[in-house]
From TrEMBL:
Residues 1-22 are annotated as: Disordered. It comes from the Bacteria. This is Methyltransferase. One of its GO terms (cellular component) is cytoplasm. SUPFAM superfamilies: S-adenosyl-L-methionine-dependent methyltransferases. GO terms for molecular function: DNA binding; N-methyltransferase activity; site-specific DNA-methyltransferase (adenine-specific) activity. It is an enzyme of class 2 (transferase). It comes from Acetobacter aceti.
Length: 331
């Protein structure tokens, strides 16, 4: 006897509730385990958020395989700028790879790492570092899990290649349109003599690499099994887009979290939300810094765990979390 349309609809709804309930139960169990892994110092910032003081590569080695569902991070993509000797020079306000630029049109410019001065050895170390990171993330991510990773036009090709070599599928780039004060300067010490010359183009965009751990079978099966494989739509009529217009981080956010590469909540919340297609799963930020990714995940209702090896940034992030996560981004 053929089932009636209403009976078919009821059966489909029951099946959906079954696999989704099983998935949510599995994620909840994984979450309780991974937020307590290791004996490193940590702060449980909320029921959904944990920040661990640890090196990302070490922490990834302790995570079980297939335990996180997405990664959103702004890494130290020059690597050397966060070495102790350069970091201390940044904090003292002079020297090292960090350039403390002059004011421009009355605007005080933030310190910028000078990636154009990296030596061949430093570039090789950069490649090795991101290869280790990529392999660690590939192991820890569930099939279909996405990685969103900030970069810059000078180094993105090298960094992104490391992820493709590790087995990730490149799924494009999210372009953040942002008018920064990077580049556009005249030759140092000869500004008047070469007044019509800029040494670099003024930066107006920021690339975020978008990668996915491969999965087998249809996307629908992966979504039911792991909750991953796609991107969460903005609405029924609007998909997530790969170009986001977002101004530099200023004002209140920098007061809350004084980190040299703080990304704005208005941008991060959009990316974090898109990273979990069903709105369930665990976000990981290997370089949590100010805690901005963790705060964005909290704001959209996701579970998130972050790591950073710098005790000062760990302190900034734990202190800033509550204010960042509740910040009204529409003002």
């Amino acid at each position: 006897m053929t089932a009636r349309p209403q009976e078919k609809q009821t059966k489909r709804k029951s099946n959906q509730n079954s696999w989704k309930s099983n998935l949510e139960e599995s994620i909840s169990s994984t979450w309780e385990d991974i937020r307590e892994i290791g004996d490193q110092r940590r702060s449980h910032l909320s029921n959904r958020t944990t920040y661990v003081l640890d090196d990302a590569i070490h922490f990834l080695s302790e995570l079980p395989p297939n335990s996180i569902h997405a990664v959103v991070t702004d890494p130290p993509y020059g690597v050397i700028e966060y070495e102790d000797k350069h970091h201390q020079k940044l904090r003292s306000g002079r020297g090292g790879v960090w350039r403390i630029p002059p004011s421009f049109d009355g605007v005080k410019r933030s310190p910028l790492p000078r990636f154009t001065v990296l030596s061949e050895d430093e570039l090789n170390r950069l490649s090795s570092f991101f290869s280790a990171l990529a392999y660690g993330l590939h192991r820890a991510l569930v099939p279909g899990g996405h990685v969103f990773m900030a970069a810059n036009p000078l180094l993105s090709s090298m960094v992104f290649h490391a992820f493709q070599t590790a087995g990730f599928e490149k799924r494009g780039e999210v372009i953040r349109l942002v008018q920064t004060l990077r580049g556009g300067d005249r030759p140092k010490g000869a500004e008047k003599e070469f007044s019509d010359v800029s040494m670099m183009a003024r930066s107006c965009w920021e690339p975020w690499g978008m990668f996915r751990k491969p999965f087998s079978g249809p996307a629908s099966t992966n979504l039911r099994t792991w909750g991953t494989g796609g991107l969460r739509r903005i609405s029924d009529t609007e998909p997530f887009k790969d170009v986001i217009l977002c101004s530099p981080t200023r004002g209140r956010e920098r007061e809350i979290a004084p980190h040299p590469s703080l990304k704005p909540q208005r941008f991060l919340r959009q990316v974090v939300r898109a990273a979990l297609p069903l709105g369930i799963g665990i976000i990981y930020d290997p370089f949590a810094g100010s805690g901005s990714t963790l705060a964005a995940a909290e704001a959209v209702g996701y579970r998130a765990i972050g790591t950073d090896r710098d005790a000062q940034y760990f302190g900034i992030g734990t202190k800033a979390f509550s204010s960042l996560s509740t910040l009204d981004i529409n003002k």
